[in-house]
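Below is how a single chain appears once it has passed through the pipeline. First comes the sequence as given, then the structure the pipeline wrote out for it. We keep one example in the README because the format questions we get most often are answered faster by looking than by reading.
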Amino acid sequence: QVQLVESGVGLVQPGGSLILSCAASGSAVSPYGMNWYRQPPGKQREFVARINTIGDTTYTDPVKGRFTISRDNAKNTVYLQMNSLKPEDTALYYCNRDRGLGPWPWGRGTQVTVSS
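Resulting structure:
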């Protein structure tokens, strides 16, 4: 059974930075494209960023130039560096592999709150 554990919960002021981690157990992440998603309060879960197996990245427009996704296959972990945070980035953040293969069981997510 694959388990995903997101961490990096934080309350940060607008303009601040935070790094999130997603640690996987039960399967290696190295063969898969990995993604970060977020679910703002009262809204559906949405795509944030993706990193493929060779390190190419894609981002949703609202976070381009501010967020950076990365992976450390040796640690079986995916990261999301978030800079210049805005109140609209407030959400529960999740990670998972590419959907085409069927998602792994979702983790609990990690809460990010951007507020002054």
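DSSP finds no helices and ten strands in the chain.

See the next section for the split statistics.
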